[in-house]
Write a structure and sequence with these properties.
Elements (H helix, E strand, L loop, with lengths): L6 E2 L5 E2 L5 H4 L33 E5 L4 H12 L6 E5 L27 H7 L11 E4 L4 E4 L2 H10 L17 H16 L1 H5 L4 H20 L13 H17 L14 H11 L2 H4 L29
Parallel strand pairs: 3-4
Antiparallel strand pairs: 1-2, 3-5, 5-6
Helix pairs in contact: 2-4, 2-8, 5-8, 7-9
Length: 311
């Protein structure tokens, strides 16, 4: 696939040209029904022989617009890994070439790629799968470690402990069974459920019922606990929150999911504001990259009344 004409900025920094669906077509992933490979093709883990945990070795490609990618940025900040795992962003507009590096969000500081697809091609020549964020890159091996987003956050939470300075354990050993169980429910009923619920037909009707029931249950659960598993932020809070922050301004902006909004659930709304007002969450949020145009953004800076902010 043609990469178009890269643009060179002062200092030799290279960017992709503007997204152009008329010229390149829309982004699509066409999968052979008989292809046994997963959609997210790369699933390396930090701490293995292939990818040992080392400060400065890994780079995280993210996107402000993407909830799955934002999860990794939040955990990286909670763990205090800013000086251990580097970070950059792709532009929030794409055409058939996939995600790209443009001036608004900055260049690729590692390999000088103009398209994220180049990282995938470098790892697997002739790559024909999904080009996604987050993508974790190995600077030493010059290849992708993983684009399996659930694994990346767990590795950031656990594999770099000798260099972590944030003081937050988002995946504590004693709570892992409870975290894993809740995460499975959140994935189906909330993280993926919001998209299914916005559709039509019996499947969408069932998804709306599950989503509404789950949010009601979580609202009740949080009456007796600051966070989902007690007094500290865990992986479950990160996974839930990235959907909550998009709920009223994206997924349910037109009321397709139902009349009730996050702001109508007083405890869940206060909990969401509590997290937003912590730097790892708020600093990784750019409403302009995912809110529907013209949809008002609720008052995320309003006092939440759920105790002092997490340090």
């Amino acid at each position: 696939m043609t990469a178009g004409t890269p643009l060179t900025a002062p200092g030799g920094v290279r960017f992709a040209d503007a997204a152009d669906v008329d010229r390149y077509g829309a982004y699509r992933v066409t999968r052979d029904p008989g292809d046994p490979r997963p959609l997210y093709r790369f699933a390396g883990r930090i701490g293995t022989d292939a990818f040992p945990a080392e400060p400065g070795r890994y780079h995280l490609y993210s996107g402000w617009f993407c909830p799955w990618a934002q999860r990794t940025v939040i955990v990286r900040a909670l763990k205090g890994l800013e000086g251990v795992v580097s970070l950059s962003y792709v532009d929030h507009v794409r055409d058939a070439r996939g995600w790209a590096f443009r001036e608004e969000t900055g260049p690729d500081p590692v390999e000088g790629f103009t398209l994220l697809r180049e990282a995938y091609e470098a790892t697997e020549p002739g790559f024909d799968g999904h080009v996604s964020v987050p993508t974790l890159w190995d600077r030493v091996g010059r290849r992708i470690v993983s684009n399996t987003f659930g694994d990346i956050t767990l590795d950031l939470a656990t594999a770099f402990e000798p260099w972590a300075t944030g003081g937050v354990d988002t995946y504590p050993q004693a709570l892992r069974p409870a975290i894993d169980a809740l995460n499975e429910r959140l994935l189906v009923d909330v993280n993926q459920g919001v998209s299914v619920a916005a559709g039509t037909g019996p499947q969408a009707d069932a998804a709306r019922e599950r989503l509404d029931a789950t949010l009601t249950e979580l609202d009740d659960r949080l009456r007796g606990s600051r966070y989902l598993h007690g007094d500290t932020v865990t992986e479950s809070d990160v996974r839930l929150w990235v959907t909550l922050v998009r709920l009223d301004v994206l997924y349910n902006a037109t009321g397709a999911i139902g009349p009730r909004r996050l702001t109508d659930l007083p405890v869940l709304w206060a909990y969401a504001r509590d997290l937003y007002q912590q730097p790892a969450f708020g600093d990784s949020t750019d409403f302009a990259t995912f809110a529907r145009p013209g949809v008002p953004v609720p008052g995320w800076d309003a006092p939440h009344g759920r105790g002092s902010s997490h340090e």
